[in-house]
Amino acid sequence: MEIVFSINQEGDGGFVAECLSHDIFTQGDDWDQLRKNVQEAVSAYFFDQPKPSRVRLHLVRDEVLVC
């Protein structure tokens, strides 16, 4: 099983992660911290059931252009 997190970068440079298939949310000040926090959140959420074999982090970039 694979679960997917949608990752958005905040204005202050930090990252917010939201799982698309389960109620799992976390954040991190940088990419390395976010990855660690996602792994911890997934382990905690699935503590009493089989854990997913893979976690995909999908970075969403939102950009506004002035015309």
Walkthrough of the structure:
This protein is α+β, with helices and mostly antiparallel strands and 67 residues long. It has one domain. Helices cover 22% and strands 36% of the residues. The chain contains one helix and four strands; from the N terminus they run βββαβ. It has one helix spanning 31-45; strands at residues 2-9, 15-19, 25-28, 54-60. The protein has a four-stranded mixed beta sheet with strand order 3-2-1-4, with helices on one face. β2 and β3 form a beta hairpin. The protein is elongated and about 50 Å long. It starts with a strand and ends in a 7-residue tail after the last strand.
Which features does this protein show?
alpha+beta; 1 helix; 4 strands; 67 residues; four-stranded mixed β-sheet; single chain; elongated
Secondary structure topology:
Elements: E1 2-9, E2 15-19, E3 25-28, H1 31-45, E4 54-60
Parallel strand pairs: 1-4
Antiparallel strand pairs: 1-2, 2-3
DSSP summary, beta strand count: 4
Intertermini distance: 43 Å
- Indicate how many domains the architecture comprises: 1
Mean pLDDT across residues: 95
Strands ordered across the widest β-sheet? 3-2-1-4
Order of helices and strands: EEEHE
Helix content: 10-25%
- Assembly annotation: single chain
Q: Treating each run of at least 4 consecutive H or I residues as one helix, how many helices?
A: 1
Uncertain spans: none
